[in-house]
Amino acid sequence: MVASNPKNVLEEKQPSTAEEFVNRGWAKKASGNLDDAEANFRKAISQKPDLVEAHYGLGLVLKAQDRRQDCIQSFEKVIEFINRGIDDRVRGEMLRRLSLAHINQLRSGDWGLEQEIWKHK
Q: What residue ranges define each of the domains in the chain, with the CATH number in brackets?
């Protein structure tokens, strides 16, 4: 019997749901395979266009690829969907601030969240 090389579980099971494509996208991003990560996040978005995690992951991949305009559009989508309402408001606010920070950094070189964090009365 010939021993086969064990494969990563993510490689063995083909994703079928948007959430599974997001999980695979994160795994591909973590391993440095940005092209496959992008493809998986886009597949998730094609199945579930308002999936915040897919747009956020795609934004991070596009930022790593230095595709600024596309990246900004992805983060703007995250903010748009969160502003429409999200079940977990704390998680939504955190993702909204992070997305805004990435947009600010790309446009001005600074995260620029002082007003967001330290709101004056």
A: 18-113 (1.25.40.10)
